[in-house]
Amino acid sequence: MEKDNWCGFEILSQAPTRISFAGGGTDVSPYPEKFGGAALNATISIYMTAQLRLHEDPQVVIQANTRPEPMVYPSVEELEFDGQPDLGCGENSASSTVVTGV
User: Fold this and answer.
1) What is the DSSP string of 24-65?
2) In a domain, 100, yes or no
3) Largest Cα–Cα distance of the chain, in whole Å?
4) Is 47 in contact with 7 (CB distance < 8 Å)?
5) Does the model's pTM come out above 0.70?
6) Residue 91 in 3-state DSSP?
7) How far is CA 35 from the centre of its chain?
8) Domain encompassing residue 16
9) Degrees, nearest 5: CA angle 40-42-46
10) Structural domain tally of the chain?
């Protein structure tokens, strides 16, 4: 991205990735309400990061360290979210990605 188009406002967020040892997914609704659930996991020193920079143009560029190429959208209105982050990462990394984006 070009720096001369940058408005000077930036937010940087970071969340740790976790490793699931047992019970992965049993702590996510609606499973625990129906069957009960427990998960054993730990966070590790690998982080997902998200950076928000405001630009003068309406283009949205999403970059992730889990994807070789950025995802580029002409505007915010063109963004579509189907409930699953499409960032080329596993289930546990996906939750870290969502947390950093929020």
Assistant:
1) TTTTSTTHHHHH----EEEEEEEEEEEEEEEESS--EEE--T
2) no
3) 55
4) no
5) no
6) helix
7) 28
8) 3-92
9) 150
10) 1
